[in-house]
Specification:
By secondary structure, the chain is of the alpha+beta class. It contains one helix and three strands; from the N terminus they run βββα. The protein is elongated, with a radius of gyration of 13 Å. It starts with a strand and ends in a 24-residue tail after the last helix.
Length: 71
């Protein structure tokens, strides 16, 4: 999460190449948007049977777990 000029940016470095970067007026809003984007990305990767990339490092961040409901 980066806070700049009254807005926050949330990103997932391991998934940024798939578009996992977004913003919001608050930290909570940015994280909610990121959660929604990650769910879409993960469902797309699963549908295409592609491997989910892993983060090599987590710096000043929070690990996020998303349950897609798919088994």
């Amino acid at each position: 999460i980066d806070k700049n000029s009254g807005s926050c940016t949330a990103r997932c470095p391991a998934m940024e190449e798939f578009g996992a970067k977004t913003g919001g007026e608050t930290k909570e809003e940015a994280l909610t948007h990121l959660n929604n984007i990650l769910l879409i990305i993960l469902l797309d990767l699963e549908e295409k049977e592609l491997e989910i990339p892993t983060d090599k490092m987590v710096i000043n961040g929070a690990k996020i777990t998303i349950n897609t409901g798919a088994e």
